[in-house]
Every structure is written in structure tokens, then in C-alpha cells.
Amino acid sequence: MTNKKYNVVDLFSGAGGLSRGFMDAGFNVVLGIDNDDSSLKTFRENHGHADSMKLDLFDHGNINKISEYLNGKNIDVDVLVGGPPCQGFSLAGKREEFDKRNVLYLAMVKVAQILKPRVVVLENVPGMLTLYNGEGAKRVTEDFENIGYKVERPRILYAPEFGVPQIRKRVFFVMTLKNSIKKNFNYPEPDLEASEYITAKDAIGDLPSLEGCSDYSLHQTWEYINKPSSIYQEIMRKKSEQIFNHIPTNHTQQTIDLIKLVPEGKNYKALPQEILDNRVFKYNEALTRYHSLKPSRTIDTGHRTHFHYKWNRIPTVRENARLQSFPDDFIFYGNKQEQYRQVGNAVPPLLGKAVATKIKELLDSEKI
């Protein structure tokens, strides 16, 4: 691959997991757009010289502000990326076909129509391919084809196969501008087999246990008191001298006593029958304790259903970030709830990097 830096704009950027993946693959991330202040601060602080814009993309009139900004700085966009809010298609949502959030992807279509990036990457939940007879995927394909893009067949990528220590599936749509890109895009192939997956212990086993810690202040930092015990930990720690976002949660004693009863890799169903007879658990994954020798379950935004494989508490923001493949030098801003939400909503950077690397190969191979 060449050393050319291609410019990337990220719509619905959130904290910028997808952008971080592109940045790590050698792209120049120039702008992130979102409607959440804490996410935008996190984005700005973690993507080099990238700027950010707070815009409501339900209002397509705001799209002109993006092009005005880029034109004012004389920036040509090579790649447009984005993960439009997917609650209507998500397994965690109500699966409402006409949820207005399902049409936020149209903002990506409008931006692509104006900016004419050579490649567009749209990321979403796998349910987009199947729910309502795949109507969402059909709409995406037709709308991008109508503005001059070739739409590659969408591909579901499984995060553990790309070095992410978490069970997570995401679907990627890759669109290439017909009059600019002649070759076909090839999705990345898995790097790891099941026996090689990075485990929860591989990912977070070196972080301080927080046992006996009664300081719940938001801005405290920790030293690396344990040596890395895996290559993954070495990579995560490489550019960081301290541990940020590693704040304990003040659980009630009742919660701690319940967690103690759940064996590693099990959930509330493993509780004694007398407890199950007297309590109602609303979620299938309630009181899920991670297994140390397997990837974690999918990191969500609520953060109160999963627990550390060893310690009787929920994972910290930093532990969730590690399980999402965010390196330790990626610092999250906002209050604790906002930080958890940013991590849970993000595309794992290593998954983004896998896609970005193939896009860079494609762009490098095209004669401009």
C-alpha cells in the first residue's frame, strides 16, 4: 500500500470507533458529525487534528453546513463512513419498521450525493438484512445506486474473527463511485479461528481489580500495577502511561450478594431456586458473568446486566473499552453513563481497521 493519506468524514460518529479504525489503517480523519456533546468531545480528543460538528441530521438542511465547512478548508473527501442509529432494526429495540431512526441513513445518501466521496461505508446491525423482508437493505442499495454508486453485497463481520475479544456481529455496506472506482471491493477475511479468539481474561486481566476501592470520583487514574499477560494487553497499553475511565460502581450489598452466586459464564438462571421463585428477571442476559476463557458477550449501552468474570461488579468503562478493542490511550469524556453509552454504541476499532485496510488497498490500486 502507498503512504497517501485519504480523507475520511464520519457521520453519526459517536465516540468514533469506526474512525479510529480508519485512522489506525492510515487514513486522515478530518471531521466527525453527531448530535451528542459528550460523544463529540471524545471524538475530537482522540482523532488527531480532526474537527467535529454538532448537527441534527433529521434536518437535511444541515447537510449544506458539512459541505460549506469542507469547501472552506479546501478538503476533498475520499471516504464517507457512518453508522446511522439502528434502534428500529436492532435486536435490542422494538423492531418497528417505521421507526423514524431507520431513515437516518438517508442523510448519508444526501451527503454522498453532494460530496461524491469515492467510497461510502455504512455500518449497522445484522437485523437490517432480514427484518421486514430485508426492506432496509433494499432501500440502502437502491438509494445509493440511484446517485451513481456500485453497492457491494453487504457482509456480516464477526468481531472475534478480527481480534476483538467480544461476541459482536455488524453488517457493512460498501459503496464505490462508479465513475471513479473500476475494481471490485473485497471484504476482509477472518484473521482468527475460534480456537484463537481473544478471551475476556486476555483483554482485561491486567487491569486493577478495584477490590476495596471506595473512591467513585470520575477523573481518577490508575497505574499499571500488573504486567501485561497477553499480546493483546501489550497492544492496548502501548501508547498509554496511565489507566483512565477505570471507575468502580457502588453496588448495593444485595446486588453484590446476587453476583456472588452466579458462576463464571452463567447468568441469573444459575441462581438458587428459592431466589428464582421470588424474583422476576426481565432480560435473558440478566446477571450474566463473563467467562474468562471466552470473548465477552456483546457490550451494550445499559451496562448493568453483565459482570466481571472474577470480581463481583459490572465492568468499568475502560474494561468495556478494552473488550471493544479501544486502546488505553483512547479516553472517554462526559459523565459515567455517557461514557458507557459511547463505548456500547461504538464500532470496535479493530473491526473498522479491517474494513479500512481493504478500502485503502482498493484506493491505492486505482489510477487517479
TrEMBL record:
GO biological process annotation, one example: methylation
Enzyme category, top tier: transferase
GO terms, molecular function: methyltransferase activity
Pfam (any one): DNA_methylase
Record: active site: C86
InterPro entries: C5-Methyltransferase, C5_DNA_meth_AS, C5_MeTfrase, C5_meth_CS, SAM-dependent_MTases_sf
SUPFAM superfamilies given in the database record: S-adenosyl-L-methionine-dependent methyltransferases (SSF53335)
Keyword presence, S-adenosyl-L-methionine: yes
Record key words, sorted: Methyltransferase, Restriction system, S-adenosyl-L-methionine, Transferase
Catalytic activity, EC: 2.1.1.37
Signal peptide: none
Reaction(s) the record says it catalyses: a 2'-deoxycytidine in DNA + S-adenosyl-L-methionine = a 5-methyl-2'-deoxycytidine in DNA + S-adenosyl-L-homocysteine + H(+)
Source organism, top-level taxon: Bacteria
Family: Belongs to the class I-like SAM-binding methyltransferase superfamily. C5-methyltransferase family.
This protein's name: Cytosine-specific methyltransferase
